[in-house]
Amino acid sequence: xxxxxxxxxxxxxxxxxxxxxxxxxxxxxxxxxxxxxxxxxxxxxxxxxxxxxxxxxxxxxxxxxxxxxxxxxxxxxxxxxxxxxxxxxxxxxxxxxxxxxxxxxxxxxxxxxxxxxxxxxxxxxxxxxxxxxxxxxxxxxxxxxxxxxxxxxxxxxxxxxxxxxxxxxxxxxxxxxxxxxxxxxxxxxxxxxxxxxxxxxxxxxxxxxxxxxxxxxxxxxxxxxxxxxxxxxxxxxxxxxxxxxxxxxxxxxxxxxxxxxxxxxxxxxxxxxxxxxxxxxxxxxxxxxxxxxxxxxxxxxxxxxxxxxxxxxxxxxxxxxxxxxxxxxxxxxxxxxxxxxxxxxxxxxxxxxxxxxxxxxxxxxxxxxxxxxxxxxxxxxxxxxxxxxxxxxxxxxxxxxxxxxxxxxxxxxxxxxxxxxxxxxxxxxxxxxxxxxxxxxxxxxxxxxxxxx
Length: 453
Prior knowledge:
By secondary structure, the protein is α/β, with parallel strands linked by helices. It is built from 15 helices and 19 strands.
């Protein structure tokens, strides 16, 4: 089968790191690999229909992107990325419910039992997303999740191994919505990290995660005031971790994005430098600006109740701590780098800072993916426009460039089309004998561009 493979060994052995759009990237190529077979009862082979590209995937392939403390979870092995997957079961060892032909959503977390290890305390308690053996390999599998495990593989391929405990039925959910299950579960888990206390929320960011958090907040709290800060970085600093040197995100027309984000449930969308955003928030909440005696960026005396920071860079974190009212909560949804923080603001105002990296069993006892599955099956959950670009694996260069550029290129969620999606496309075309309507963003591929369509 075909797979898009990341091979760190090539970079270390021969200095063959690749250079793409101004950044070092670990060697990538589409290879023929051995199709994995289910290793034990409960395991299945899933053929992807769509597999998403997210920031964690880009962290995996961009050299020197992961903070040193987190490299403990990596072993430098050859991997096939991709953990946002909707697909079809093709092979199944003896299972309880997952049968060949079943359409499924993949919850990619590998816990102790999946690796063949004795259960850690977190797994025994049901907090499998906090597994204490995330860095350990077992008899059956390694890595913290599919997309980082050599044995399981990943969604950027024509097949990956998944335990049926990690599957959720996808019947009644389109591939276009199903591929959003993993990021939607991350968004729901982030929102549930806030124990509501107040009526005013801020979401920082404009990508897929930010938009899913907005949709989740609106579904859970119809009366909540939600402000989206489209850009909360320095106006001169390039976008963190992106390969484009110029701040392209500041140059495009955000009008369509504002309309789309408002349609998801945002009360308003703002853009501007930090001090302007502080002033506008002060007007919105009836707060005063308190400016330090030494000058510098002010602090609100009574700001917003919660901030979901999907950027988590130094500028957005600093702004968040100044926007929050005393007793407020900052939820770090994006992965922060090592950075200086104004801890006196956290201490003196008794702020809560919490991380939101995964999903699992929530305090209510519900599985995050089970809730998201119900939401995705409901047409009233307004997420149909979040997938904006689709590419075959062979066009991975263009796909990764598009995902890296993000909203500056009109991209929200970029996905790879797997063999199931290709088969459905051929069947649809054979049945209709007509060309499908062109949707430039939804179906953008380099092949179509080359063909002049």
